[in-house]
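thread: overnight batch results

M.L. [08:02]
morning all. the overnight job finished for the chain we discussed friday. pasting input first so we're all looking at the same thing
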Amino acid sequence: MRYVRLGGTDLEVSVIALGCGSFGGIGSVPELFGRGENEAQAFALLDAAREQGITLLDTANSYGGGRSEEWLGRWMAERKARDEVVLTTKVRNRVGPGPEDEGLSAHHIRQQVEASLRRLRTDRIDLYLTHRPDSSVPIEETLKAMDEAVQAGKVRHCGLSNYSAAELDEAARAAQTLGVAGPRNLQSGFSLLDRSAATEGVFAACQAHGVAFTAYSPLGGGWLSGKYKADAPYPEGSRMRLRPEDYTSWVNDATFKRIAAFEDAAAQRGVSLPVLAFAWALGEPAVSAIIVGPRRPDQLAPALAALDLHLTAEDRAAL
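M.L. [08:03]
and the structure it wrote out:
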């Protein structure tokens, strides 16, 4: 395993993070709660990640209706592993039926910090992210509430997820003006099929404000695994069966042709598609870590193999 310092923080993290979004559900979608890994399967994944030196664990208060945090908390307690890991969780998505059970208001953040700490069975969250922007709440209110948690010692560092370059710039400048803790990490999608972080100024904004970037979905929702074929039904339980809305724009001949060419590039190197896709994402200088979401322990293997596949800048540009 390789480790890096996360931006300007004191957090040293593995360059591969374990995404826990399928523990007890498939992300934050209520109708899919119960469709992900059960607790025993989640523990097996966490054990395998620990054995491979993965220290960065990523969850959210809304994943699996809270089950992801609960099971992580139980696993850390049973394995006495809390001090071995860097724990990321998030706030913003709906967690209940009430009007104040979502968003980035100070009230909701204060409530959810406490709820996450209880479920995770810990006294601090290493990295606390706003899951996505909330246009109904002034950014200043959100930043002050996050800083309050930092000053109380409940959160070590705060950050953002799914923010554009302009939104990151606004948050960083507002934090500086207010004199409060600013974002130290931005987590967003990044893969060969989604390079918007590079092309739309997100990486540049991160560099300008000293913000680390962590990449989720480096396989493009499974598209870069090779499991989706133009002439075959999508596999049962795959994202294209359960949550296709984020990927419908890729369902066309051009995408399948690109993936076929990518298969040829992987074959020429004697590696699988996931290994090459992970290596490409890991090779991006602006990326501190990639977040992978295996469903079984053996599915960690491609990400681990990617650590040994060096791609030059020319290789990455060609891909």
